[in-house]
Specification:
alpha+beta; CNF1/YfiH-like putative cysteine hydrolases; 15 strands; 20% helix; 23% strand; globular
Length: 269
């Protein structure tokens, strides 16, 4: 995808041309201090992070130059609620994932260690964005999102592709036994994603847990999952590392099959 900042992430996956998606990093905006990007402005897209509200609003305006319409934002609950993005208005919906079948309806989630998951079917008829922290994964957000996509499709949609964006990596995600116990309740092979360390703690592999959840609902074409937010402070925000920090956004939408190319940025509204 041309035009977007080079530091941002465009999924490298075999999605159809009508599917457009990207994940922002901390570069490309106007935030400063803990929400900045060194000598550059930071692209903090999260409200309620302690950043100046006017700067966050400006960052959201800048983001909108790369998408066909304002993203349908969610008020994240760390649960398993999925909504139809078309029904989300100016106020964020209380949910952790959204689906869209209409053109130019932008699904979006904000993250800073939790795993953003973007999904699309190979026919280009439905897309989704999900916010998957460990609580959401244990609660079934991934499975609920895929099932919602299949319900929304006008007919059989065939294979669904998944892209795992930047999140806390397995070398940095130290958890207690309660997290393993919660995962065992929904993922029979959860233990394969946990490595015991000292004092009854574990290191957990969030992308691996997401892959297990995707396999449960027949999604085996999974891409990405190699970026660790904690270990790359120059590029990513991380709540676990910094506490006071910003949020990235993961967005996805459908273009009309014969529509215009939104890859050229538009002027802010």
């Amino acid at each position: 995808m041309g035009g977007i900042p080079s530091e941002w992430i465009v999924p490298d996956w075999p999605a159809p041309q009508v599917v457009r998606a990207f994940v922002t990093t901390r570069h490309g905006g106007v935030s400063e201090g803990a929400w900045g990007a060194g000598a550059q402005g930071g692209m903090n897209l999260g409200l309620g992070t302690g950043d100046d509200a006017a700067r966050v609003a400006r960052n959201r305006e800048l983001l909108q130059t790369f998408v066909p319409a304002p993203p349908r934002w969610l008020s994240l609950q760390h649960g398993s609620q999925v909504v139809q993005a078309e029904s989300v208005g100016p106020s964020p919906a209380s949910a952790d994932a959204s689906t869209a079948v209409a053109h130019h309806v932008v699904c979006g989630v904000t993250v800073a260690d939790c795993l953003p998951i973007l999904l699309a079917d190979r026919s280009g008829s439905v897309v989704a964005a999900a916010h998957a922290g460990w609580r959401g994964l244990a609660g079934g957000i991934v499975q609920a999102t895929v099932l919602a996509m299949r319900r929304r499709a006008a007919g059989p949609i065939g294979e669904i592709l998944a892209f795992l964006g930047p999140g806390i990596g397995p070398g940095a995600f130290e958890v207690g036994a309660e997290v393993l116990a919660a995962m065992r309740g929904s993922l029979p092979h959860a233990e394969n994603a946990f490595c015991p360390i000292a004092n009854g703690k574990f290191r957990a592999d969030l992308p691996e847990l997401a892959r297990q959840a995707l396999i449960q609902v027949g999604v085996t074409s999974v891409y990405g999952g190699r970026w660790c937010t904690v270990s790359d402070p120059g590029r990513f925000y991380s709540y676990r590392r910094d506490r006071v920090t910003g949020r990235h956004a993961a967005v996805i939408w459908l273009e009309p099959r014969l529509g215009f190319d939104t890859r050229t940025p538009r002027s802010p509204q």
